[in-house]
Amino acid sequence: MDIFGTIIAPFKWLVSFIMVAFHDGLSAIGMPAANGWTWTLAIIGLVLVIRAALIPVFVKQIKAQRGMQLLQPDLKKLQEKYKGKTDQLSRQAMAQEQMAMYKKHGTNPFSACLPMLIQMPFFFALFQVLSGISQAKDQGAGIGAMSHDQVVEFDASSIFGAPLSAALLHGGAGNVAVVVLSIVMIIAMTASQFITQKQIMAKNMSEEAMASPFMRQQKMMLYILPLVFGVGGINFPIGVLIYWTTTNLWTMGQQFFVIRRMPTPGSPAARALAERRAAKGLPALSVLSGKRDEEAGAAGSTAVEIKGQRIQPQRKNRKKK
Fold this sequence. Notes:
Distance between the termini: 106 Å
Shape: elongated
Helix content: over 70%
Strand content: under 5%
Strand order of the largest sheet: 1-2
Order of helices and strands: HHHHHHHEEHHHHHH
Number of helices: 13
């Protein structure tokens, strides 16, 4: 076994174990064991378990992204400080100051990629499990936590006439159901990923963040990542496309909730939240802490009262004659 296979092996077992657990649970309540929809729901269950486990990581990601937003003015000053200096010492000094700034605020520019990086081993593990179904069936073996009987059941299962283990590029081009379902799933997968990133950039970034050099890289990734997954989707079995489309829909819904309820300070979404609360007569909400700014409101009302009152000059104590 190669190094990659050794690393992925525990993930293959865990992925197959979760799928089998959901499959057995669904079979126990009356769904057919060899039915494609039973295995499809098992794959969706796998997504729910992984994404629920990643919620703490997602919270850390939000905090890190907020930290990056607050760092933009300081980063801009740092770039101005070293503007035009292209020598090696200046570049090293700039990099060191930048890393010290990230460390001080507990953030980094790659924090947004953390949930995706954590998901990738599970994605590759599921890809290997589903791609190896036919081979395992012919060899009379199981895959991970899946027994040989379950491998045979999965190989025979299909939805809308498309086998879950079939891929568009690998033997599925002759099956109309595989072609149509693969194209629909690839479009849904790439579209949901694009919409998710687009709504973050359009609604949940401050003006300083939009003007930063890091933003140019984000704009490139906005178009590159969906393209990469779209082209790569022709190699993915139907089951993998179901997994990735479901996880993208989860991400899209999660981002919609965060943008609406906990937007980034200074972003269009933050202004929209303030307007909605003001229209309902509610106090301002701190988007950083999630708490009401009652102290700020009290201070503001006190200032208004003081401003509206006429302040009487105090007389100096007269000297006794």
